[in-house]
TrEMBL record:
This is Hydrolase, UxaA family. CDD domains: SAF_AH_GD (cd11613). The keyword Lyase applies. The lineage of its organism: Bacteria, Bacillati, Bacillota, Negativicutes, Selenomonadales. Residues 12-87 form the SAF domain. GO terms for molecular function: hydrolase activity; lyase activity. Keywords: Hydrolase, Lyase. InterPro entries: SAF, SAF_UxaA/GarD, UxaA_altronate/galactarate_dh. Residues 89-99 have a biased composition (Basic and acidic residues). Residues 77-99 are annotated as: Disordered.
Length: 99
């Protein structure tokens, strides 16, 4: 079965598109041997992330089981999760000592 996106850890709240996804499409998202469908709410470029459930403003963004950022606004399920709505928490000298 072909997949449209992948998640690598059950703690992840975003998936990565492995092909271009179009708004209105039902994407097959793989986590291990499990496949779930997510309705895509807006076009998602290849290699970009999207929310697998609604993420409230301020919540940590999890990818590969690791915190990669924080939502700067609500990110609805199936919507693009990128620089327009995620604040990076990696490589920032002003956050030393913070998780």
């Amino acid at each position: 079965m072909a997949i449209d996106a992948i998640m690598l850890n059950s703690a992840d709240n975003v998936a990565t598109a492995v092909q271009i996804l179009k708004a209105g499409q039902k994407a097959d998202v793989r986590l291990g041997h499990d496949i779930r469908q997510i309705l895509i709410g807006e076009d998602i470029p290849y290699g970009h992330k999207f929310a697998v459930h609604s993420i409230p403003k301020g919540q940590e963004i999890m990818k590969y089981g690791e915190v990669i950022g924080r939502a700067t606004q609500e990110i609805r399920e199936g919507h693009h999760a990128h620089t327009q709505n995620i604040e990076s928490l990696r490589g920032r000298g002003d956050l030393q000592g913070e998780a």
